[in-house]
Design goal:
heterodimer; A: 294 residues; mainly alpha; 0% strand; elongated; disordered N terminus; B: 310 residues; alpha/beta; Rossmann fold; seven-stranded mixed β-sheet; two-stranded antiparallel ribbon; 9 strands
Chain lengths: 294, 310
């Protein structure tokens, strides 16, 4: 059965869905596949309309559309930023790193004018490119197999929750090399003018993590889960900057506790909901027994 | 006042030239017709009036010759001092001078070309920024202006700066549309602040900027632009057309020059149009391409010359 499931694109295979899909495959050979003809033309920016990084053209995930690029920097900007990232561990997310990157990419010192936001562009590029790397790791298939092997499970036995936790930790580990300068980056991101773009990027990461983990919620849980993942990620980042352990075990433990908290809060809310509905039903029953027309 | 009479003389001679006899003078034995102006000459705007392209340069020259002495005082009065903030912001955002040690001779100091910077407003600010903020003693500025009177004003002011008579500051009288004395790919930063509005052929100047800049070099321009807020725009227009010519008349004794100034501001293309012109010259546009100052009264435009990979 597992080999049948493996023939499907993995992204269309959230864990809860696999039993149903397997059953469907056993009944008929029709496979659910995205039809390429139905792709809507994606709106392309006109040359008059300059591109801004992270400008969202489409604000939803769809397996029927090609994926949006992780960032919208031009080739020259990407060249400077990529070269500048090599200098980040030594110089931090500073204009010095940018200038050195521009020199490495064959540009002049003055060419950092290509990046109107300066250091913040470097931080945004770091975030967006790491997000792309995370997606790449999942799509080539190795990441979930490794997470499953660590837990001694088969990759298809991994629940959504475990996948989310694994991806979140993996994303945090990517920040390991810039851990000592990350507080500066967080400070930059929390400047008033930078907050909107920082939050957009945080949402994009949370959304990516959940989509890659196979979360298929379409109700209010869509919002609460993204909120929860964003909150856990943002707080873990702060903890990570003060984590003295070389393998980030303190951060991992922190993430573990936050997920437990999340579960506890979710249980509380479910309990409250049950209690309220029980109370309501009792009240209605009581009223009816008194002869009220409810 | 001699400059003022020169301006008047120009003004009247232009009027006289427009007069045409009812029957054309046809005489094969003299060259009167050959001397008269060709009728199909290309026209350009000079404020709200149209003038032949060949004439705009002299007219603009006359305007700026007449305002050179009172330039700074008038700028302060007209912009209520805000022009200083704009210029400081412009220079700070460009961050001239390299704070890192140079690895090659090419990286030693920036070569800045300040076009239409006759009085040295921008040049001195850039040299100060490079020296005091980035501790770069190598960055040099060439001030280029078409107008000898403005350059003389700048030379006079440079006496009070530490850059007088050093190789970090030089003055050139040149037309920005054609600068054969500046070799190709030799300039790091090309700036033109409140100047490009007065050029006869703006696209030619942009093409020339593209030629002289090194690959990766930056074209930066600050110019009056279009206000996007209609309320502010109303106030701004009223100030422009009522107050500024009056201030010019009272303080500088020259109403017509300042009437030209506000008319030329009105005729300058919008932020988007000018960005299109910069792109047309071959520059890359970073991000949105322009930054509005004080609601769009002025705007900073930037373009970067792309690197051609061999």
């Amino acid at each position: 059965m597992a080999h049948l499931a493996r023939t499907l694109p993995r992204r269309a295979l959230p864990t809860q869905l696999t039993p149903y899909l397997r059953r469907a495959q056993a009944l008929s050979t029709i496979t659910i596949q995205p039809t390429p003809q139905r792709t809507r033309p994606t709106p392309t920016p006109t040359p008059n309309q300059p591109k801004t990084p992270l400008a969202q053209l489409r604000t939803y995930h769809s397996t029927l559309h090609p994926r949006l690029p992780d960032h919208e920097y031009t080739n020259s900007q990407t060249a400077i930023l990529t070269a500048a990232l090599d200098h980040v561990p030594a110089h931090g997310f500073t204009s010095t790193a940018l200038t050195l990157g521009a020199r490495d990419a064959g540009f002049l010192d003055v060419s950092v004018q290509l990046l109107p936001r300066g250091e913040f562009d470097l931080i945004l590029f770091w975030l967006a490119s790491r997000r792309g790397l995370l997606r790449g790791k999942v799509e080539e298939g190795g990441l979930f197999r490794r997470i499953a092997a660590e837990k001694g499970k088969d990759v298809y036995e991994l629940g959504v929750e475990e996948r989310v936790r694994g991806l979140l930790l993996e994303r945090l580990r990517m920040n390991d090399e810039v851990r000592h300068v990350w507080q500066d980056a967080l400070a930059q991101m929390s400047l008033l003018s930078n907050i909107p773009l920082s939050l957009t990027e945080l949402h994009a990461l949370a959304s990516d993590i959940l989509t890659l983990s196979g979360d298929a919620s379409v109700d209010a849980a869509w919002y609460t889960r993204r909120l929860a993942v964003s909150a856990i990620y943002a707080s873990s980042e702060v903890v990570m900057t003060r984590d003295p352990t070389p393998d980030l075990s303190e951060t991992a433990a922190f993430v573990e506790r936050r997920f437990e908290d999340r579960q506890a809060i979710a249980d509380k809310f479910t309990g409250l909901g049950q209690c309220a509905s029980f109370g309501w039903n009792t009240a209605v029953g009581l009223g009816r027994s008194w002869g009220l027309k409810i | 006042m001699s400059s003022r009479s020169a301006w008047r003389a120009l003004h009247y001679s232009a009027k006289r030239r427009a007069f045409q006899p009812p029957t054309p003078y046809r005489c094969f034995s003299c060259t009167t017709r050959a001397q008269s102006k060709p009728e199909d000459e290309r026209m350009t705007h000079f404020g709200f009036t149209n003038v032949p392209e060949s004439e705009k340069e002299t007219r603009v020259g006359a305007v700026f010759s007449s305002v050179a002495a009172s330039y700074d005082r008038m700028n302060d009065l007209m912009s209520l001092g805000i022009h200083r903030l704009w210029k400081d912001h412009f220079v700070r955002s460009l961050n001239p001078g390299s704070c890192l040690p140079a690895l090659t001779a090419d990286q030693r100091g920036w070569n800045i070309l300040d076009i239409a910077g006759g009085t040295g407003d921008i040049a001195f600010r850039m040299l100060d920024h490079a020296t005091n903020i980035n501790h770069d003693m190598e960055t040099r500025v060439t001030i280029s202006d078409i107008n000898a009177d403005m350059l003389a004003e700048g030379r006079k002011r440079s006496l009070d700066t530490p850059y007088y008579n050093t190789n970090r500051l030089s003055f050139v009288e040149a037309n920005a549309e054609h600068m054969p004395h500046i070799p190709d790919a030799s300039v790091d930063l090309y700036t033109v602040v409140f100047g490009i509005r007065n050029f006869t052929d703006k696209q030619a100047a942009l093409n020339e900027a593209f030629r002289v800049l090194k690959p990766g070099g930056v074209f930066a321009c600050m110019e009056f632009s279009k206000v996007d807020n209609p309320v502010l725009d109303g106030i701004y227009k009223r100030w422009n057309f009522s107050a500024i010519p009056l201030i010019g008349q009272v303080v500088a004794g020259d109403r017509d020059s300042y009437q030209y100034l506000v008319e030329s501001i009105e005729r300058f293309p919008s932020q988007e149009e000018f960005r299109g012109m910069i792109q047309k010259a071959g520059f890359m546009i970073p991000g949105q391409g322009f930054e509005n100052l004080t609601g769009g009264i002025a705007a900073i435009h930037k373009g970067i010359k792309p690197i051609v990979k061999a």
